[in-house]
Amino acid sequence: MAEENKRKTSPAEFVNQVRSEAGKVVWPTREETIRTAIFVFIMMVILSLFFLGIDTVFGSVVQWLLTLA
């Protein structure tokens, strides 16, 4: 029932609404973008090393368990 009360938006009105909302977007500065990219790269390296370590430990445990069988 609530959908029946909604007014249809014309394509022109939709485009005007999109332009209005796009004008409110605050883009990051070049410095913020570079800083964020460096942070993401550092976190990627740390997490990849962490998961490499976990995978190595679990792999060793599985290999050890398989030698017992």
From TrEMBL:
InterPro entries: SecE_bac (IPR005807), SecE_sf (IPR038379), Translocase_SecE/Sec61-g (IPR001901). The chain crosses the membrane at residues 38-66. It is found in: Cell membrane; Membrane. Gene3D superfamilies: Preprotein translocase secy subunit. It is a single-pass membrane protein. The keyword Flavoprotein does not apply. Keywords: Cell membrane, Membrane, Protein transport, Translocation, Transmembrane, Transmembrane helix, Transport. The keyword Repressor does not apply. Its main location: membrane. Essential subunit of the Sec protein translocation channel SecYEG. Clamps together the 2 halves of SecY. May contact the channel plug during translocation. Belongs to the SecE/SEC61-gamma family. Component of the Sec protein translocase complex. Heterotrimer consisting of SecY, SecE and SecG subunits. The heterotrimers can form oligomers, although 1 heterotrimer is thought to be able to translocate proteins. Interacts with the ribosome. Interacts with SecDF, and other proteins may be involved. Interacts with SecA. This is Protein translocase subunit SecE. The lineage of its organism: Bacteria, Pseudomonadati, Pseudomonadota, Alphaproteobacteria, Sphingomonadales.
